[in-house]
Design a protein that fits this description.
Layout: E1 17-21, H1 33-46, E2 50-53, H2 58-69, E3 74-78, H3 83-89, E4 99-102, H4 106-117, E5 120-123, H5 128-139, E6 144-147, H6 153-163, E7 174-177, H7 180-194
Parallel strand pairs: 1-2, 1-5, 2-3, 3-4, 5-6, 6-7
Helix pairs in contact: 1-2, 4-5
Pfam family, one: LDcluster4
Amino acid sequence: MTKHPKTDPASTGLKYKICVSGAAETGHCGVDAFSLGEEIGREIIRQGCVLVDGATTGFPYWASKGAKSEGGIVIGLSPAVNQRDHIDRYNLPIDYHDLIIYTGFNYSGRNLLLVRSADAVVFGCGRLGTINEFTIAFEDKKPIGILEGDWETDEILQEIIDKSHRAEEMAGHIVHDKDPKILIQKLIKVIEKYKDTNNHVL
């Protein structure tokens, strides 16, 4: 028997997964980076989504803290093979998460799985790993939200877009804002628009 997705209980209630990408070391990010990170996390939950991150320190960590303060679900993808490896070798935290998936693929492999697992990615203040996750999201035509702030990351990402000679491909997929609430609102609209292809490489 064919079930209608709007009436079948097994097909309802799925939440969008929004990945937060940003620097694990935030000394260059400015005094507002932590509060903006927390607010991004809060808004992801307030607007009915699940937060996904790299189970790391810095900007994503503060986003996870904000998400948990709103009673939300936070899923981490670790570069480590298990919890001991995660803590002892990578020196990464386990708090502010509901579950952590240990990929065993180091940072580069973790980054690919992290972006692929999400319906959209938000980029805050970052470093090289953040740019790596951005290029994965860009190649996958994933909905992208860029948080503008007192850091250079937003400008660097925009320069990459401008010089990619492929900006037209991503028209409508990328949104910017300095207000976390508005940014997540914009991003959810992009997810809705492209939700049939969000988890597929085009």
